[in-house]
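Data card: per-record layout.
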Amino acid sequence: MPSWLNLSEMMIKNTALLIIVLTLAACVPVEAPPRIEITPFPTVTPGRVVLGELLPPGSVFVPDDSVAAATPVNIASMPTAAPDFSICPARAEVELETTPPQSASVIIEEATRYLAVGGDPGTLLETMRRTWRVIPADAPARADIDYTGEGISEVLIPFSAPDGSAALIVLGCRAGSYAVLYESLSDTDTPPQVLAFADVNRDRRNDLLYAALVCPDERESVADCDYQTQLITWSAQRSRFVELLPAGVLSQEPPSVSDFDNDEVSEVVVRLSRTGTAQTGPLRTGTNVYDWDGTQYVLSIIELDPSRFKIQVLHEGDRALLRGDLTSAKTIYQTAISDTSLRFWFNDEPDLLQSYAFYRLLQTQVATLDPNQTNTFTDIQRIYPDPAAGPVYAALARTFYETFTSDSNVGSACAAVSAIIAQRPEALTQLNRYGSRSPTYSETDLCPF
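The structure for this 449-residue chain is written out next.
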């Protein structure tokens, strides 16, 4: 009995002690976990005013370090590259010649060799700029920008060689050595001009925007050359640089970079200021804006200045006619006839192009059943009474209309026109003399019905 009582008393005491401990523990305040404030992503506000400033031509664009407009998934899924310097050659004492190689190709070989055996990129750029004097003073040569996203900076070098050749190259570490990752050779002794060497489209990878001079085979001076602009970025899938701009972006001056719509993605703004040369023919001036569509840069805005030459207006009308927009074509041809402020590219154009405009206007009126076709034909007969002695297009107009009114068949009218063109080939040669940037006409183009 005494032993059993002692045991019971001990159990009662322990139970009471446990209750007291639990009660005290419940009274101790517990710190609540910190509350996380989530800042929502901004949404598009309709109706805002879009403003943007252009950089001066030749300026180098370097965006700030703010996070671009991107989705949370894109940002979270972008890996942060950890630099692995083991894939680059170990630094070593390497000498460079004090005399520069004479050609661009040999300079590229020597620069690659120097880095491949452990040469310092900074020393290479300093030697090329100050000792060899092949990097222009205003050219941005850099060795501190990572284009591939692998955590190691590549070496960007624009240069001109003593023999008059020039190039822009990007050198990078590959398989324990250095290799040329990108190369752009120049048609002149001026290296391609670097316009931006940062994340232009805000995809969290650095891009390279540059403009290289390209020149026609026959040129009198560098004024006949154009800048061809290209934007490149590194593709990990293809293990090479890829082009983001369409081929053939030409302009007389280097483009600029601007965020027109405030979406933190930069647009490439190309000002078309060249009026044309004997080699190109007359050119339209204006502005082209290329914008990022998520995959590449595409031409999104075209703002052309009014045409200055009569042939340009006629080219515009012909483009509308050939794509089937007869109403627009008819209006454009009427403008070409009546606008006395339009200039002429060749001295023999006044009668020639006026008769061509009447011929085209008559075609569109016939095709649209315009009752004014009779008045137009009367004007042609009055202005050009002798079709054999006048411009060839007056003869085409009379033949076209007389054949059509004879059998009410526009196909027969075009066949009659083709017969005249076979006898008078100047109908084509006089249209196809406006240079490499102007349309080329065939017999079918002159009567596309």
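Known properties of this structure: The CA atoms of residues 216 and 225 lie 7 Å apart. The mean pLDDT is 84.

See the next section for split statistics.
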